[in-house]
Each structure stands twice: as structure tokens, then as C-alpha cells.
Amino acid sequence: MNIFNIIKDLLAPKKCYSCKKEGHFLCKKCFEEIGYFESICPVCKEKTRDFEVHFYCKKETISLDKVIILTHYQNKIIKKLIKDAKFYGKKDILEDIALYLWEKLFDHIEENTQDIILIPTPMYFWKKLKRWYNQSEILVKNMSKICQIDYNNSLIKKVRNTKAQSHLSKIQRMENLQKAFSIDEKLIQNLKNKTFIIVDDVVSTGSTLHEISTLLKKYGVKKIYWLCIASD
Ligand SMILES: [Zn+2]
Ligand SMILES: [Zn+2]
Q: Exposed, middle or buried by CB within 10 Å (0-12, 13-18, 19+), for 139?
């Protein structure tokens, strides 16, 4: 894709990637045809209520409470939407997705809006400069606009640039991410009683998710939920 095609695309009216109808990048009807991700436990991959980590699976991952996933990454339309939103400047796609994410979140949590805080998955500053934006931050800001939930994008920082994860094994990923994140120690004191909703685009092996959650639990955060657009 060259720069002219990218600009042409950015100026074109919103059209559903699936049925081509104008108005949204993914209309509700087509989204529902693609279907929601089933409520499974992130540890054993068996059915669970509201995406909770089973009580007996907690031994392996004491830092995670829920991993709520919206839809399927194997779906071609979803894959293309996420790629265009991340790499080709189509930030508006994230407005549509934020709405679906917000609906999914409120189907699966019991907390009141004032008791939760949205946190984007942090990106290393240099990567953000190169890409112009962090897609998770845009998602969180859009969600906060829709539902007036607080968000904070300075609490967790990625302080080390890490290798791309896709070709690494699970153990290599964990080593790659060690000490990659830092927490604002003052800020967290006022927030640790809230339920944290950490928002990300795609969850694969979950190593980022474990690293950040473990760090937050060390600072006394009680409940940590992840909310992701898609997973395999
Ligand atoms: Zn459609
Ligand atoms: Zn389980």
C-alpha cells in the first residue's frame, strides 16, 4: 500500500468492510454474523462464567481475574480491520470497535462504572512516535467518551523496547518482557481499590498480559480484567 492509497482511504466515507454499506467500518449486522468470542477460561480454555479464570486455575495465574475477548482473530474481516487501524492510520475504525467493546464489557462485569478504571496497554515511546499513536490508547479514550468511565494512560509505562513477539516461544516471550514495564508508584496508591480494565487489541500467548498483571498485583491492585478485541 503506498502513501496515496492510504490518504485516499482516509478521506473516503466509512463503509462496512463486509457488506460495503456506508456509516460504519463494521455494521452491527455483519459484526453479529462474525460472532462473539465464547466465554472461556484463559488458563484451561474450558467454558467459564463471564470469562473468569476458574478458581482451580488460579494457582497458575494468581494475577489474572478475567480475560474478556470480543471476537475471533481468524476472521478475515476482523484481521483486516485491526491491521488497518494499527498500521495504516485508520484510527476511526477504533471508534466503531470501542462501542462493541463497551457493550461486551458491560455484559460481563458486575462493578459500577465509578469503581472501574480503563488502562491502555502501554507502547514504548519510540514505537509510538514511529506509528504516531497507540491503538490501545485510542480505544480507551473512545470507550471513556461513550460511557464516562475514568481512564489513565500514564500509570503504566513501557520502559524498554522489546523484540517483536510473534516468532518467539512462550519462554522467550516471558524473558523478552522482563522489566519492560514500570508503574507510577504515587498514582497507583489512589487507584488500587478500583477494578482495572486493561484494553488491548489482540491477545495471543498472553505474556504481556501476565507481566503487567503480576506487576499491578504487587502494588496491591485487587481485580484486574483484560478486555481485548480478538484472539485466535
Ligand atoms: Zn455490514
Ligand atoms: Zn480454567
A: buried
Quote the CA–CA distance of 197 and 200 in Å, as a whole number: 10
For the record, the C-alpha cell of 11 comes out as 478521506
Residue appearing with cell numbers 495471543: 204
Dist. CA 130–CA 228, nearest whole Å = 23
What is the CATH architecture assignment of 36-231?
3-Layer(aba) Sandwich (3.40)
CA of 11 to the centre of ligand 1 (A): 19
pLDDT digits (tens, 9 = 90+) for 2-49: 677 667 666 778 899 999 999 999 999 999 999 999 999 988 999 999
Residues with CB under 5 A from ligand 2 (ion): 41, 43-44, 54, 57
- Show the cell assigned to 120: 491502555
Where along the chain do its domains lie?
Answer: 36-231
Query: What are the phi and psi torsion angles at 208 (to 5°)?
Result: -60, -45
Can you name the residues that pair with 158 across neighbouring β-strands?
Answer: 181
Ligand nearest to the CA of 54: 2
pTM of full prediction above 0.85: yes
Ligand index nearest the alpha carbon of residue 48: 2
216, 224 Cβ separation under 8 angstroms: yes
What is the spatial distance between Cα 192 and Cα 219, in angstroms, rounded to a whole number? 8
